[in-house]
Amino acid sequence: MDELDIPIFAKAYDLYKILSSWRNGIEKTARHTLWQKSEETCLSLIESLLLAGQRSKEKKAPALERASVQLNLLRVLLRLARDTKVIDLKKYVAAQQIIDEIGRMLGGWIKSVTAQKGTPPPQSNY
After folding, report:
1. Distance CA 58, CA 31 (A)
2. pTM for the whole thing?
3. CA distance 87 to 80
4. Could you state, in order of their start, the residue ranges of all structural domains in the chain?
5. CA–CA separation, 43 vs 47, rounded Å?
6. Which long-range contacts (CB under 8 A, 24 or more apart) does 20-25 make?
7. Is 82 left (phi over 0), alpha (psi -120 to 50) or beta?
8. How far apart are alpha carbons 19 and 35 in whole angstroms?
């Protein structure tokens, strides 16, 4: 399967497109700090998902765990953006819905990989 055909990759890709489309509407001071970090985290998430898609079944878990951490960090960054009024509630909810869907897909992928290895799935602190 082509890594670009993975549904979770497509969702993360769409999320980045949405975040980047909001960039010019972000206040300049936040655009070069909080928002830049949010976009970079989303790009790192995409990178981890691509890496996991290219790895053998036995080696997917570390990339998926990294993706899970990045997704949780992105949740926090967007919540902070909402709380500091960098983005409005409508944008926050739209992004959060996509993040939640990615989270469910990622959780299922992690569960399937760890079930194959016979190891318990990583525990999320979020």
Report:
1. 39
2. 0.87
3. 9
4. 3-117
5. 6
6. 22/87, 22/91
7. alpha
8. 9
